[in-house]
Amino acid sequence: MIELLEHPLSPYAQKVRIALDEKGVRYALRTPDAIGSGQASEDFRKANPRLEVPVLYCEGQAIFDSTIILEFIEDRFPDPPLLPPTAADRARVRMIEDLCDTHYEAITWGLSEIANFKRATGEQAQALQVRAAEELAQLHDWLEGQLGDRPWFNGEHFGWGDLSVAPYVAGAVGFGIPPGAGPLSDWFSRAAARPSVAAALEAAKASLSAMANVAVVVEAGLFKRQYRDHRLEWMIRSGGLSIVQDGIARDNIRFNSAPVRG
Predict the structure, then answer these.
(1) Rounded to whole angstroms, how far apart are CA atoms 232 and 240?
(2) What does the alpha-carbon distance between residue 209 and residue 201 come to, in Å, rounded to a whole number?
(3) What backbone phi and psi angles, to 5 degrees, belong to 201?
């Protein structure tokens, strides 16, 4: 049996769920114990030294990193294909995925730091939210250009490009910053109606109730949000340097520095 270690709110895990469902592959879901605490189990640490989801267990191998997992799924279960047929279009959807996994994710992650984890309030929170809205508008314009007159980012059929964008746009919608009326908004309505996407987004929505008291858990140092690469960059350049410094002082943030063992 294939097993996917995930968290319903992780857009990276959502991508993999959608891909498996589109392929018709049966799998089991599991959320690692103590995820986000920085105190992961030894098994999880061995599976992914970065202590991140998703991790895919398949045929005795643990595979981490959502893009590498998608590549494995495409190689191992080639039908139906998720990548477009031409080299140019394959490069295009991979670039879309990379931008969403880095720049887009950093913004929605920052919005969650404010809305759910209460790391900023008052004028600082408002300034960060304004910056996020401005940058998301720019990304939505870029994505609309990539979509062009295609029905899907992949072209005629839903695929790699679409499952790479849908979780992030859903996150922006959840924070009250949807795409403006137009092709991207219409595309998202179509994408969200697909059973594979709808299942992932419904699971994310159902898990939101657990976020009600998460700020208290963070304040107690029992949950350590991971600040890494583009997330750290976005927070600092958007006016949140004091948030990072406070998190270090309170020991309720962590960095991607888990040692590799075994």
Answers:
(1) 9
(2) 14
(3) -70, -35
- Mean pLDDT value across the chain: 93
Q: Which residues of 39-49 are buried (b: 16+ CB within 10 A; e: fewer)?
A: ebeeebbebbb
Predicted confidence (pLDDT) per residue in 187-230, tens digit: 999 999 999 999 999 999 999 888 888 888 888 877 888 999 99
Residues 6+ apart with CB under 8 A from 117: 214, 215, 218, 225
Closest to 175 (Cα-Cα) out of 132, 207, 137: 132
If 0-12 CB within 10 Å is exposed, 13-18 middle and 19+ buried, where does residue 74 land? middle
**Among positive and negative, which fits the CA dihedral 208, 38, 168, 17?**
negative
Beta partners for 5?
Answer: 30, 55
β-bridge mates for residue 30, sequence order: 5
In terms of Cα–Cα distance, which of 35, 26, 20 is closest to 2?
Answer: 26
Q: What is the pLDDT of residue 216?
A: 85
First to last CA, the chain: 25
Region 127-145 average pLDDT: 98
Decide if 223 contacts 253 (C-beta within 8 A): no
> Buried b / exposed e across 2-36, counting CB within 10 Å, b at 16+?
eebbbbbbbbbbbbbbbbbbbbeeebeeebbeebb
What was the pLDDT predicted at 37? 62
pLDDT in tens, 11-34: 999 999 999 999 999 999 999 886
Q: Residue 223 corresponds to which tokens in the numbers above?
A: 């949950």
Within 10 angstroms of residue 81's Cβ, the number of other Cβ atoms is 15
